[in-house]
Amino acid sequence: MTEVLRQGARDLLAHAVEEEVTAFLAMHADIRDDQGRHMIVLNGHLPERTIQTGIGNVPIRGRRVRDQRKIPKADRIAFTSTILPRYLRRSQSLEELIPWLYLKGISTGDFSEALRALVGSPAGLSPATVCRLKAGWQQEWEAWQQRDLTGKRYVYFWVDGLHLNVRMEDAPCLLVVIGATADGRKELVAVEDEIRESEHSWKDLLLKLRRRGLTMGPDLATGDGALGFWKALPQVYDPTKGQRCWVHKTANVLNKLPKSLQAKAKAGLHDIWMAPTKAQANKAFDGFLQTYEAKYPKVAVCLQKDREALLAFYQFPAEHWQHIRTTNPIESTFATVRLRTGKTRGCLSRATALTMVFQLVRCAEKTWRRLRGYHRLVEIIEGITFVDGESDTRKAA
Q1: Which of 1, 35, 91, 145 has a Cα-to-Cα distance from 248 of 20 to 30 A?
Q2: Has residue 363 got a pLDDT over 90?
Q3: Do 353 and 279 contact (CB within 8 A), yes or no?
Q4: How many Cβ atoms sit within 10 Å of the Cβ of residue 16?
Q5: pTM metric for this prediction
């Protein structure tokens, strides 16, 4: 069956390359000589090469295209396949598999055997090749840590401190920041390893971002209330509003109640953050406190102390509420990373673990969805005020 799939993949890939080159020739079909002959024409095949994929090695031959015009070589039209880029030897899925395997505890010497079992054919990755890949990832990580942020503008931040369950010399706490750009796309902004989630650690991270050109802070930052981040934030980006994560807060509240009451309490909390207006949210908030504060005062204190921060999202577009009420962009990404860092055979170095985590998150970043209602981010940047998710101008209309 694997062989049939591999042959089918080869045929499909060959057909896709033919379609691509046909479309390229049609695009330049009007380029002709004085006799009306096409000047951009096929010129045979490239040498066959083998692409390592998730179903094994797939041999494929690309197509050559020739520009026959008598003009300088630098001005001639060249064809480069986007499906089969030059020098491609491994599919993207296989590239992403390598850091997963490393974090899972596969040693350098066992990569070829592990990939052979997974893809059904020799992967061609010697220990030396894997070491070169790791060195390249390390350089990429270091360059990313020093990248210039001048001119960047993030409207929202999601922040969290994460502890990975991986064997290391000194297991770090990862301080993670994800940002939403002005066009609604999510980006990994920062990943720093620290001993703990202290005010000093977060301030140091934010100051690094500022020194590298991120002079303007976000309009809103969402995170867990226990972070030292909230003390550090106004020292670096003072105007930024804070939104407490409802997932974290719900868990904190429920932990202070007997299990028999947790389902009902969870529904009561749900009524608060799903209310269509802040006034209705406050009414549900007061009702929740009245229900539990007499018998469970710790529940009331836990919820009441972050009241304003829990309801900050009402000052932003309603289309964005589902994104900014929680730190889900971070939690959903790192939940998968945690699954693959639970068991490792050896003790990883700090640099290796951080490099691998960076690679995994960058892979995940490619699948992150754009913010719903991203066009409304422009209104926030322009300073338009929002009440109950609607702008003043819209309410006036």
Answers
A1: 145
A2: no
A3: no
A4: 14
A5: 0.71
